Amino acid sequence: MNHLLRALAPITDAGWQMLDDEAKERLTPALAARRLVDFDGPHGWDYSSRNLGRTTALDSPAAGVAGRRRRVLPAVELRAEFQLSLDELRAGDRGADDVDLGPLDDAAHRIATAENLAVLHGWGEAVTGVGAATPHDVVPLGGTPEAWPQAVATAVELLLRDGVAGPYGLALGNDEYRVVMESTEHGGYALREHLRRIVEGPIVWTPGLSGGVLVSQRGDDYLLDVGQDLALGYERHDAETVTLYLEESFTFHVATPEAAVRLSS
Question: What's the pTM value of the predicted model, to 2 decimals?
């Protein structure tokens, strides 16, 4: 039995398969940051830190002896709990194709949003995100969609000046992504196609993000190192409901802070 304690839940094997399939379906499009940075793992629940290859000097423990402490990046954990009706799960076991898994869908959205924010914005002292690390000034997108290509081209130029090659990926928040998908420029040319020609990489819907982030896709600039990848676990149950959770652990390392530019609406 592992730490997820799934064997203790009043859920059949078929029920777990249904829940795992639903979680994967909801998480895959929402985990936007993973499409823009390097991904390594999963390394397992016992993975606790990433070696940074650096040290910090310590006071000497004895005369004539030097001491140093190795520096590591500790893993962080995210967990999103939710409750499901046991009656609904039993209906699924009987073959119902309309099982109410809304709470699972909501939890998947919440934890995907949290991961996106941690990687692209940052998470206090726990995670230094792409946007928090970049030394570049924020580039305003402009007041109208027609101004966005020039803003994105400006961001690309900032990266090129620092020797950061493309292609580039463009992460956009909910509102910004909707604008790009719905807008056309003069002459009827789709805005999304113009932006794709500029960045030469993906334009990614990113739940939780405010504005946008342009990130180089050349590799080796940002690393998301996952211990426990997102998985469903069991917490408790009573006669009517079962409490489950989605959980993951990871470190995020910024190797090249200048490889991204933030964009504001």
Answer: 0.94
